[in-house]
Design goal:
Largest sheet: 5 strands, antiparallel
Number of strands: 8
Strand order of the largest sheet: 1-2-3-8-5
Low-confidence stretches: none
CATH architecture: Sandwich
Structural class: mainly beta
Mean pLDDT: 87
Strand content: over 45%
Helix content: under 10%
Shape: elongated
Distance between the termini: 34 Å
Radius of gyration: 19 Å
CATH topology: Immunoglobulin-like
CATH class: Mainly Beta
Number of domains: 1
Length: about 120
């Protein structure tokens, strides 16, 4: 049998995930000889309210066991020209992300939702 060069990588666990609207995928990898799981997560937060209302922290579908390296947000409108808010990430931990809905002052508030992508291990 030919050695394919997988070495310790052949012993890694299988990828796992939750393929829902709010979900994740874990990808096993070897870092300096130590097995780790690279985690990609995504979710949609609730529709925003007025800019003056504190938006709730959003819990990740799976807490990162080591560190969340980055959390990004985009904005999902309601398919009308009246949605006039965007989201920005203000902070994150291994288990949650805080976003802030920012209103531009010309359209309606409360018509958008944040889309979140987070990566870590």
């Amino acid at each position: 049998m030919k050695n394919l060069g997988l070495q310790e990588g052949a012993k890694l666990a299988a990828a796992e995930g939750l393929l829902n609207a709010n979900g994740y995928i874990t990808i096993p990898m070897m870092v300096n000889g130590v097995p780790k799981k690279w985690i990609f997560q995504w979710m949609t937060g609730p529709i925003c309210d007025k800019e003056t209302i504190t938006y709730p922290a959003l819990q990740f579908p799976l807490a990162f066991p080591n560190i969340c390296l980055m959390a990004l947000t985009a904005t999902k409108g309601d398919n009308t020209k009246f949605s006039d808010q965007v989201f920005q990430v203000s902070s994150w931990t291994n288990s949650e992300v805080k976003v802030f809905p920012q209103w531009f002052g010309t359209g309606n508030q409360g018509l958008c939702s944040p889309l979140i992508i987070a990566i870590g291990y």
